[in-house]
Amino acid sequence: MLVFAQFGAGRIGAIHAGNLAASGTARLKHIVDVNGPAAAALAGKHGATVSDTAAALADPEVGAVIIASSTDTHADLVIAAAKAGKAIFCEKPIDLALRRVDAALAAVRAAGVPMLVGFNRRFDPSFAELHRRIGAGAIGTVEQVVVTSRDPGLPPIEYLKVSGGQFRDMTIHDFDMARWLLGEEPTEVFAWGAALVDPAVAAAGDIDSCMVLLRCASGRMAHINNSRRAAYGYDQRIEVHGSDGRLIAGNRVATTVEQADAQAVSSEKPLHFFLERYAEAYRIELAAFVDAVARGAPMPVGAEDGRQALVLAEAALRSLRENRPVKVAEVA
Amino acid sequence: MLVFAQFGAGRIGAIHAGNLAASGTARLKHIVDVNGPAAAALAGKHGATVSDTAAALADPEVGAVIIASSTDTHADLVIAAAKAGKAIFCEKPIDLALRRVDAALAAVRAAGVPMLVGFNRRFDPSFAELHRRIGAGAIGTVEQVVVTSRDPGLPPIEYLKVSGGQFRDMTIHDFDMARWLLGEEPTEVFAWGAALVDPAVAAAGDIDSCMVLLRCASGRMAHINNSRRAAYGYDQRIEVHGSDGRLIAGNRVATTVEQADAQAVSSEKPLHFFLERYAEAYRIELAAFVDAVARGAPMPVGAEDGRQALVLAEAALRSLRENRPVKVAEVA
Amino acid sequence: MLVFAQFGAGRIGAIHAGNLAASGTARLKHIVDVNGPAAAALAGKHGATVSDTAAALADPEVGAVIIASSTDTHADLVIAAAKAGKAIFCEKPIDLALRRVDAALAAVRAAGVPMLVGFNRRFDPSFAELHRRIGAGAIGTVEQVVVTSRDPGLPPIEYLKVSGGQFRDMTIHDFDMARWLLGEEPTEVFAWGAALVDPAVAAAGDIDSCMVLLRCASGRMAHINNSRRAAYGYDQRIEVHGSDGRLIAGNRVATTVEQADAQAVSSEKPLHFFLERYAEAYRIELAAFVDAVARGAPMPVGAEDGRQALVLAEAALRSLRENRPVKVAEVA
Amino acid sequence: MLVFAQFGAGRIGAIHAGNLAASGTARLKHIVDVNGPAAAALAGKHGATVSDTAAALADPEVGAVIIASSTDTHADLVIAAAKAGKAIFCEKPIDLALRRVDAALAAVRAAGVPMLVGFNRRFDPSFAELHRRIGAGAIGTVEQVVVTSRDPGLPPIEYLKVSGGQFRDMTIHDFDMARWLLGEEPTEVFAWGAALVDPAVAAAGDIDSCMVLLRCASGRMAHINNSRRAAYGYDQRIEVHGSDGRLIAGNRVATTVEQADAQAVSSEKPLHFFLERYAEAYRIELAAFVDAVARGAPMPVGAEDGRQALVLAEAALRSLRENRPVKVAEVA
Predict the structure, then answer these.
(1) Which residues 220-259 of chain A have a CB within 8 Å of chain C?
(2) Which of A239, B185, C34, D248 has its CA 20 to 30 A from that of A304?
(3) Which fold has domain C122-277+308-331?
């Protein structure tokens, strides 16, 4: 049974801790969080101990860490955990600065520890099945990918200010999806964005709506559209066109109830946010990490994947600022 | 080009006349209707002549008749047209009384003229495709059929009083669908009905809601549910279960527009009534009649089919009155 | 924290034990099963003890029992648990014989203990939402209910022989659904059945396919269709027609992937069997039981509901044998 | 009754002629085509006369022309028809060269004749309903538009060579849709394209797959994806995101039949090509033209719309060649 120390007792930390508790194959021993009461509450709920970073990493029983603290702490914790020889499960992004990502990755490589970056969407059963079918040749050669990814509502402006901006905070998931589904590394990025939802977003130097194109050396292309607000909830859909057909993975709903009345035929809105929509993905993701550590198998999403999605975000940001297509090699 | 005389210039007559005009393979020459202005209007629209029955049937140029007048005139017109040697397209039902249906069918057989009974639903592209797939073995051996058939709203009570009642007026279409899809003649009928929509229906001696079961010698079964009122429009669906799978044919909509908003994800209600829903079926039905006459081929829905659906309606009526399953042989 | 003794370590017992373990509000202390290795395995997995009935019921720490053993043991265990003053969660059916059900219910009433009968479908989120909307008036007055309930495949003939027959073993869930959704007690039942899937079923004195009608004093009606075999998996759908509209709850799928290729546009088959389809329902059901015990609140599905569904099954069986509609009062 | 002369007796000409014949409000008098037998066949079918351009335009009875001949003849015919004072229905594009489009539009303005450019998709009932709802405020302010437009199969390379390329031949419809739905004139275009379907397309100097972005001064954005080949048929979908929700208009199918079997749950592929998918749109488009001429009302799609879509195609072409976003003002 793999023993964990977890950094971060916030919203996403609570999910991982709950999944660890229910997994039957892992145990949560240490919780570390600068917010003492949050750490104590989560530790209490799952029979873990509140520790500090040094103590948690020094514990020889601990085989793995979950890094679910604020983004600015990720890189340092990755480096410390790598030095301590722990397997690493790190929430995305590793860091907002590529330089620090590279430092973290170097530490991981030097230590030879396994590391998974938390691109949870790869574990969503629908997206995973879509990817599996591409691999099985169901639609021939992939030609075009369309990723629709729209949040239910704008986060607080204070959050946006430290988020790294829409591309690094939100689109980063979609860059990972696009790379994964294209089956070929994108070499060029073009991006437009605007603050259509709220002028306060522009005032904070960010955008809330964007459209991005990616292309690969072979000519394959991907499109991503994002908005920070969808009146009907969390809109997460993927469409892949290949030489022999098309695959679509759509939204999930809480119930299949359909109502027909004098107004319309109506069904449920999509599950409202990522906690509900990706609940199953988070559970499967953690189990895949535990399983890969146990078997000494390659991580299903590697540290390099975390870096590469950030590189695409950097290229998009430069494209947005300079209003021109940007070669990935320019920013990598 | 087949030349037609048409009896009846009402709602359904207008549809057939329009389809004749647009067919390119047939021509409408005579319109006969007791309602002079209606006859004149329809004749004028399509370049036909207002005639009386005798003149229309005496015209040697006329090769076929459409009988779309009131139900109580059908049997006499069938007999007269048969004697005149015309091919006959007769709206359902042939008559409300089995005795008179038999007299009409005897005249048709004696004259050796072809006759089609207007079970338009057999020509609906979705139901026809479902039937075709059954024949092609797509779901193996048919075991159970479920017919959902619900009108958008109650007709005038005055109409109900002369309609022959729900089974002979409305369910008769579903009896035909069930027979056609079961692929085996039902031998027994059980029916319950009630006036749930409007007590005035009960006062008129009729029902507006019913559930019917049919079964065949082999054990195959069918269920029909009807209502005279559906708040969301015309509900016409069929479901067939076989040893290797299931086929469903659903409602048609005017547009594919789907709206997602803060309330729900909603799409169009079904097409509102039979004139819209079965517009294509009426067109195909008439073309099939003209084609069968031209080729001397068997009618796709024969006079005997018209009789058999009425027999099932009779059995259902007896079942309703006596609250017991009724063998078809009892009423045939 | 409510402490449980559980009778039965089979397939359904494993589900309940797993849900108890994950609930956080209850604890499994005793496992009782005539199959020693099964009991030991399940007890081992969840840190429980293998006990016998007497010891389990004598334990004062035990507040509640789960009865998930073979059907013929249910009534005796209900009586014993009631006498021991335990809250009772009993899988359906309470017994195949109404006389023994009544004896069990009398014991429960005499002891004043709470009892839930395991009609898990009431806790399926889609069916529960459909029911909630009926109560909220979304479709006005209920008029007709259609329950489609088809198993993926025939169970072993040996099982069928002790199952009590299709109505008491399989349709009993649908009788409960129909009662619950009609919102009025059915007063009359009509049923047809046949062995269409396998003649061995007929040889065993049972049927594998049926169509049932129910009606209430007000004229409301319900239809149930069942088959023991559906090539495409577990087909569980409900449709309710009311004065102001229609509600449908459909099947659940593992993924939303839709594939369009040269053949067709295709999506996933329904979840294959009740363990997957109703996994969430089982979890919610047990939580509702624990919660009702904790709050001293009425059970969401009472012992009387278990009896009434069996009464409808008895009426259906008599209807099938005598080929006539049977008043519920005849068998109650 | 408006009397027409029609130029062009090919595939699209046959559609318009058939719709004229069935319209009841217009009459086809002259057919002009360099292909004599095709002209004679179409004229014969609809009781029209084979004429030459001069004779057709000199006929004072002729009130309107349909220009459905090859693209390189459109501009000259527009000019000639305008000088003859005829109302003009011109298939898209008016010309491949903006200069000649301008000359044609100048002639139309000088003559003061009404002109409709054949963007048939605006008359598709689903797209029209989507547009109507935007206007009615159903989704608040439009923010992003996604147009999916994929042909079932590659046309002959010989056709491609004279087509003007994918943007002017195929995407032009999508440029029109995007403009129409954005509700604001796009000011900038970015486009990537490749020959992914067949290298022969690249050899002919064209592309067969593309992804395009458009943006407006307000920040609104649109995405178009195109392919010349879709294994499952004609894929024509539109998605519009606004401040209060989302509208989607999807593909049309021939039947609603859904088959569930041991493999999957499958439904019909989309209608296979534009002749079937847009049959209704062509009929409504022509009726709208006839109606606007009769009432002296503004054309629902004006000559200027034809020019503006071509301008967007020009901008896309320059963007593709120079791999940079192109301001519409650069090419207009």
Answers:
(1) 244-252, 254-259
(2) A239
(3) Dihydrodipicolinate Reductase; domain 2 (3.30.360)
CA–CA distance, B128 with B135 (Å, rounded to integer): 11
Decide if B269 touches A, using CB distance below 8 A: yes
Distance CA B292, CA B115 (A): 10
The amino acid occupying position C275 is: L
Locate the domains of chain A by residue range.
2-113, 122-277+308-331
Report the neighbours of C using a cutoff of 3 or more CB pairs below 8 angstroms. Answer: A, B, D
**Would you call B153 helix, strand, or coil by DSSP?**
coil
* Tally of helices (H runs) and strands (E runs) in chain A: 14, 15
Please check whether residue B107 is in contact with residue B316, taking contact to mean a CB–CB distance below 8 angstroms: no
Q: B91: closest CA among B120, B121, B111?
A: B120
Q: Cβ of A46 under 8 Å from any chain C Cβ?
A: no
Distance, CA of B187 to CA of B177 (rounded, Å): 15
Convert the pLDDT of each residue in A88-144 to its tens digit.
999 999 999 999 999 999 999 999 999 999 999 999 999 999 999 999 999 999 999
D224 Cβ neighbours under 8 A, 6+ residues apart: D147, D149, D171, D174, D175, D178, D210, D211, D212, D214
CA–CA separation, A87 and A65 (whole Å):
6
Contact indicator for A155, A288 with CB cutoff of 8 Å: no
* Residue carrying the six token digits 């129910």: C214
- Dihedral sign, Cα of residue C288, residue C294, residue C296, residue C302: positive
Is C269 part of the contact surface with chain D (CB cutoff 8 Å)?
A: yes
Predicted confidence (pLDDT) per residue in C237-295, tens digit: 999 999 999 999 999 999 999 999 999 999 999 998 888 899 999 999 999 999 999 99
Of D179, D243, D190, D184, whose CA–CA distance to D219 is shortest? D184
> What ipTM was predicted for this assembly?
0.95
Where does B122-282+308-331 sit in CATH, by number?
3.30.360.10
The domain over range D2-113 is classified in CATH as 3.40.50.720: yes
